[in-house]
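The methods section describes the discrete structure representation at length, but only in general terms. Each protein is reduced to its one-letter sequence and a matching series of backbone shape codes. I believe one specimen quoted in the main text would settle the matter. An entry of this sort, consisting of the sequence and the corresponding backbone structure tokens, reads as follows.
***
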Amino acid sequence: MDKKYVCDVCGYEYDPAIGDPKNSIKHGTPFNELPTDWVCPVCGAGIDRFSPAEE
């Protein structure tokens, strides 16, 4: 299972099993395969502001 990532700004959790369907990111898309211009759907932070979620 791919690792979840959390936005350091707002706490949004990106779950690869869900993806980000509102922004055309299909379920099953690993975090490291997100487009470089993808941003947090809650606060707009860039992917560089995400950290691996603690299990």
Observations:
- Strands lie at 5-7, 13-14, 50-52.
- The radius of gyration is 10 Å.
- The chain has a mean pLDDT of 96.
- The chain has no helices and three strands.
